[in-house]
Amino acid sequence: MKWEVVIGLEVHTQLSTQSKIFSGASTAFGAEPNRQACAVDIALPGVLPVMNRGAVERAIKFGLAIGAKINQKSIFARKNYFYPDLPKGYQISQFELPVIEGGTIAIQVGEHEKVINLTRAHLEEDAGKSLHEDFHGMSGIDLNRAGTPLLEIVSEPEMRSSAEAVAYAKALHSLVTWLGICDGNMQEGSFRVDANVSVRPEGQKEFGTRREIKNLNSFKFLQQAIDYEVQWQIEQIEDGNKIVQATVLFNPDTGETRMMRTKEDAHDYRYFPDPDLLPLYIDNDWITRVKGEMPELPAAMKQRFVEQYGLTEYDARTLTATKALAAYYEATVAAGADAKLAANWIMGDVSAALNREEKDITESPVSSERLAGLIKRITDSTINNKGAKDVMKAMWESDKSADLLIDELDLKQVDSGAIEAIVDSVLAANPAMVEEYRGGKEKVFGSLVGQVMKAGKGKANPAQVNELLKKKLQG
Fold first, then answer.
1. Buried (b) or exposed (e) across 159-183, using 16+ Cβ within 10 A?
2. Which of 135, 396, 415, 419 has a CA that sits 20 to 30 A from residue 261's CA?
3. Highest mean pLDDT (candidates 40-54, 401-415, 439-453)
C-alpha cells in the first residue's frame, strides 16, 4: 500500500520584547534560576496581568508580512492544565478569536515551489522550565521563562514530507528574524517547533490519527523526527495496530520518538475568556503606523535584486535567504563590486568558508568592503581568478586589504606585452604542436595554454592568453 504523509506545524516564536507579555520582568536569557520571575509571573494572590504593547505590535508586523487578517478585536483565554512549571494552573493564551487569522508562506523544495496556508497566529505566555539533570530523584523549577511573550504560529496540515516541513520552518524562521520580532535562537528556545504527523492511504480524503512531536529546536532534528515518526506509524498500521493520538518527544541520541502522554483535545483544556484581561482592540491607525515601519520584505527584495542587479531568480532567492546576507551583498555592491561577481563570491567562496567554520555571515572575518576591494581587482584584471582565491584565503586569516596582499603574495597579473612574449616563446619551443593545431588537431591548444600559464607562474590573464594564442596560431 502507498501512503501519504500529512504534516502541520505549530511554531512557538519568542517575541523580542525586553519585558514579559503581562509583567515588567526581564526576558533576557541566561539569568540564574528564578531571578527574573516577578509576583505576576509566579501568580501571587491578587496580582493582575497588564498587556505588553510591544508584543502586540510584533504580532501585527507578522500578520502584515504574511498577508493575513488582523483581527481588530481579539480575546485572551485561560488554557487550564496542571504542570509544576505553570504557577497559575492555567496559561493565558488565545483560543476562539486570535489576533491573526490566515496568511501564507511560500516555500521552495528543490525546483518545486509551494504555498503553505496558515490557520492562525495567537499571542500567549510561555510556561516555566522543569530541570531534571542536576537533581537526584527530583526536578527543579525555573520560572524565569514564565510569562515570556510567544506568538504561536499554526499552519494548515498541507506539508507532505519532512523536506517540505523543514523548508516551511526555515522560511518562517527567516521571516520572523527578518522582521526583527524574534531573535531566532533555537538553542535558547526562541524558536521551537511542534510537528503534528499522520499518515493515510494514498487517495484517502480523511486524515489519519496524528501524533504531535514536541519542542524540536533544530531543523535537523525536525527532519529526523518526522522521518522516524512516519516510518513508525506506517509499520504500526501495517502490523494491524491502531495509532493513538499522543504527544511524543524526539530523542536525538537514538533518533527515535517516544510517547510522553496521550494527546488532549481542545475541550480538555476548558478554555474560557480570561476575566482579568479586557478584549484586545487594534484600530486602523495602529495598523497603518506599524505598516509604515515595516522593512522591505524578502519577496520584494528578491524581485528588486533581479531587476536592479541583473541576478537570476536562484541567485536573488539565495541572497535574500536572510536579512543579514542580503545586507552584506548590498554593502559589497555599494562598495564598488560588480553585482554578478559579488553574488558568485558570496554564494561560493565566502559561504563555503563560513559553513566550514559553522559561522553566520555576521561573523565573516572578511567585511563587505574588503570583499569589494578583492572583486575590483578581478574586474580590472589586476589578478586572475586563481590568484583571487589565494588572496581570499589570506584575507580570511588576516585583516589586510586585497591590494596589500596582492603585493605581498606577488600575484599581480603580467601585462599584455609580457604575455605576448611568453606566448611567442612557447610557440617557438613547440613547432610540432603548432603544426598539429594548424592541421586540425585542436586538442593541443589546451596544452599550449597550460605551458604559457606555467611560464607566467599563474599570473597571466587566462582570457588574454587564449586570445593571443588563437590569434598567433591562426596568423
1. bebbbbbbbbbbbbbbbbbbbebbe
2. 135
3. 40-54
